[in-house]
Amino acid sequence: MTSLFRPALSKMLPYTPGEQSAPGKVIKLNTNENPYPPCPAVVKAIQEAATGNINRYPDPMATAFRHAAADALGLPGPEWVLAGNGSDEILTMLVRGFVGEGEKLRLPYPSYILYRTLADIQGASWEQVPFNDDWKLAAEFGETSDKLKLVLLPNPNSPSGTIVDQEEVAAIANSLDCPLVVDEAYVDFANQNCLELVQQNERVMVTRTLSKSYGLAGVRFGFLIAQPQIIANLAKIKDSYNCDAISIAAATAAMSSQDWLKDVVAKLNATRARMETKLTELGFHVTPSHANFVWCQHPDGNHQSRYEYLKANQILVRYMQFPDWGDGLRISVGTDDQIDACLMMLERFS
Amino acid sequence: MTSLFRPALSKMLPYTPGEQSAPGKVIKLNTNENPYPPCPAVVKAIQEAATGNINRYPDPMATAFRHAAADALGLPGPEWVLAGNGSDEILTMLVRGFVGEGEKLRLPYPSYILYRTLADIQGASWEQVPFNDDWKLAAEFGETSDKLKLVLLPNPNSPSGTIVDQEEVAAIANSLDCPLVVDEAYVDFANQNCLELVQQNERVMVTRTLSKSYGLAGVRFGFLIAQPQIIANLAKIKDSYNCDAISIAAATAAMSSQDWLKDVVAKLNATRARMETKLTELGFHVTPSHANFVWCQHPDGNHQSRYEYLKANQILVRYMQFPDWGDGLRISVGTDDQIDACLMMLERFS
């Protein structure tokens, strides 16, 4: 690496997102996308925006979206919402906002390793606190420490699909003296969330994405829900025009389509239940999921060979291996046909 | 400001972009947008992308765009190009890549004050080297110093619209030991650029945007041209999916429409020449422009009152005031009708 770069970057490894594939050729169950096309109102909004004023800069604060999100989620007002170019950008802003060089962030283990990359880029350190065997959090997760400036909790978690109860999250937040960010990328597939806690404690912040439940991974839109004084200060860090006019139009239409969301989530959760039953029948240990994927481990431990067998048969799932913890398969909830094909191949393997 | 944030952020002021206005009501000549709609091929690409796989994550490296850009600009290959969510994001990556907390970046004065904000966010410092009276750069601009990790040169510059010759830029780059980023946001309106220097010196990097000449400010797309080893390392800093599927499709179509670009630039440059002549007749001192705006100063010094007079008459231009240097009006090149209206009001004022 050329010596022009900051030393913190020379030793870091980049985050590697899930494999992409040419559309149509492969059944893609590896990056937790929604297998269904987005709401027709969203497609219409994009096509209208294309002939709008795209030669003009977009609204820097995505005002229309903030209103739609506040309405859909029952927030006190749009000033509780900050829009971002995917929740990845929101997470980047949070790390840049709260964690300086030489400071520290905390995450549970196993969970979303992107958080570690964000710390590395910032020249900060990270510490991982293992989940208990029942996927609850050890008391250690809520302990304060001198350099600790940010705690990140994916909830529901990946790869496990498990969820930590709102009461437990509240207790952690209250014992910490730094922000606790609850990453709710998958929360629309669960039966609870932490929005209430945001109103009770300025140190609780919730991130959301339109990439999963709303079927808009290609559009890059995520947002933060936090108290207005937090939003106002974080906005200083963001690029002036971080969301484009077309994605603002798409995201606004998506948030205004809560009936569509309810339907698609019901459909995916029904498929998930079927996956859980069948995988259990096939001898897998299945962790009950609150997300649009299922984490499963087979007693024979042949996870990597199953991953490769599926891939050879044009089915892409995620093989994940966590040092000192274990490995398994994370299978996104697809359409019923896709999941039938996947389950059939897994049956054939065993 | 709540004490949860990094200290570097508590003292900084946010960057304030130019005023926005509801479309249609106002003649907007304040943020250097292209007044013409984008190429029809771009609109078509967006509308097609809307019904494509937007439920799937986009290509993390925007491969199609990189090929189109390399072809259009005669670069050795796509690995010389890094795509970003506007050139703002590219500039953010560059500052994060090269400048650590407590280190320093340099910019000329007066120029683009966003660079200072980016240093502030990073907890770094910035120093400004004044342009000479003839808009050339003082030797000081090329001097090395211990903490100096990045030098930024908007070329053509804003607010002046002036350009520093390629030979002069090469000499500065050779005397520095840190990267020199040439921000060529406006270069399509000029008659030279610094792409050749990138191939000669790994410390020279060029940023471009589709917001100005291509008429796509609403789409947020910019890119970096640098040597492949620089691009590969900077890619580690970017969000995994920093450009969305729709803007990649739009930007790829735009880069493949070089004939359209040539025509719209010729039209705008003809309008610019007319603006320069008429403003001179109206008694302004006009700095000859190589960009899609004109910087003008009137001997009577009544710039702010002209700005307000125009605004009261539904014409928005940029009043800019640079401490220890002076003030003036920066007027974007609009359509002929828009410029006629603006010039008529300025004539009426005087």
TrEMBL record, chains A, B:
Alphabetized InterPro entries for the sequence: Aminotrans_II_pyridoxalP_BS, Aminotransferase_I/II_large, HisP_aminotrans, PyrdxlP-dep_Trfase, PyrdxlP-dep_Trfase_major, PyrdxlP-dep_Trfase_small
Modification N6-(pyridoxal phosphate)lysine occurs at: 212
GO molecular function: histidinol-phosphate transaminase activity; pyridoxal phosphate binding
UniProt keywords, alphabetically: Amino-acid biosynthesis, Aminotransferase, Histidine biosynthesis, Pyridoxal phosphate, Transferase
A single GO BP: L-histidine biosynthetic process
Domain Aminotransferase class I/classII large: 25-341
PROSITE patterns named among the record's database cross-references: AA_TRANSFER_CLASS_2
Listed pathway(s): Amino-acid biosynthesis; L-histidine biosynthesis; L-histidine from 5-phospho-alpha-D-ribose 1-diphosphate: step 7/9
Keyword set includes Amino-acid biosynthesis: yes
Reaction catalysis annotation: L-histidinol phosphate + 2-oxoglutarate = 3-(imidazol-4-yl)-2-oxopropyl phosphate + L-glutamate
Known cofactor(s): pyridoxal 5'-phosphate
Residues spanning the membrane: none
Assigned EC number: 2.6.1.9
EC supergroup of this enzyme: transferase
A Pfam family this chain is assigned to: Aminotran_1_2
Family to which this protein belongs: Belongs to the class-II pyridoxal-phosphate-dependent aminotransferase family. Histidinol-phosphate aminotransferase subfamily.
Family matches, as NCBIfam families: hisC
Subunit details: Homodimer.
This protein's name: Histidinol-phosphate aminotransferase
Gene for this chain: hisC
